[in-house]
Please model this.
Amino acid sequence: MNLSIIVPTFNEAANVDELVERIGAAMQGRAFEIIFVDDSTDDTPARVREIANRVDFPVRLIHRDEPVAGLGGAVLEGIRAAASPWCLVMDGDLQHPPEDIPRLADRAAEGDADVVVASRYVAGGDTGGLADKTRTAVSRLSTLLTKAMFPVKLGRCSDPMTGFFLVNRDAVTLDNLRPRGFKILLEILARQQLRVAEVPFRFASRHAGSSKASLTQGMRFLTQLTMLRFGRMSAFALVGGFGAVANLAIMSGLMALGVPYLTAAIIASEVTIVTNFLLLEYLVFADMRGQSGGFWTRFVKSFTFNNVEAIIRIPVIWVLVERSHVPSVLAAALTLIVAFFVRFVFHALVVYAPRRRIEAAGNRTPRVPEDVTRA
Model:
């Protein structure tokens, strides 16, 4: 079968040569291309161009100067640009062994699956490449949580968190995908019911460079999971809940230091207004940023609205405390619950509303990868 191999990269220059050479050796005698979708700030693009001139199979490059939606967005862009409807996705750090690609392709050729997943958790699979027992435990717990939230769509997939899989583009409604962060397979499987097959693989150690896993990626995963299962409003609630707890904690702490409750409420509100905006910007509405103006425009809209809301909300707290004798922290909590719904509507319909475009979406020209091969 013809195959397009999609490799999203971020600063993987030290791995490019080894990856391309091993793919070429593994796929000898088969028709395939490699598409690097690169968000790097190092010389990864130059390394891709250089080795492409030394091999006898197609190597293509998309370098994104303004990356959108992280690794998931890179994968989606590569799938759209692929020459073959069968697209294999793998990392660029060689933790996904190229020698396993033919086994995924052969399984897909049986014709009874839309997605073939390389799994660490079926017989013959292994998680040995994870850095330590903590990361192994986090990986397994994340997998269990994800499967529990999507028991039907993920029922036949033991490893929905893997980044090593083969998908039939024609079976997936690409326009429905809202990628964010690393877990693009989860996005694909959770959006529609697909036929899934699995083959085991041994997760290898990183060849060179450093892992991209971080606390930020963990937060993006939790946000993605929440939005897939419950929708954007629930992700907004997750951030709002964090902000409310922080708000009340700051207010209580300041009051314990002798600060009057209204002053404490104002300081707590200002701190959490800025913090919540950043969380909304990079987690909840990350997929809408590119169409909704500049960062500072969104910040001014959000900051102004939330301060107007605070100007209204804090006097309400005063009324509840002084007239109705409600405890001050409880009064603040009650007003935050009401404010949550108002904030969500404003941010969804105003702060992150798409800008008007002169050109219709249907007239946009698809991005074409740079062909850097001699073949």
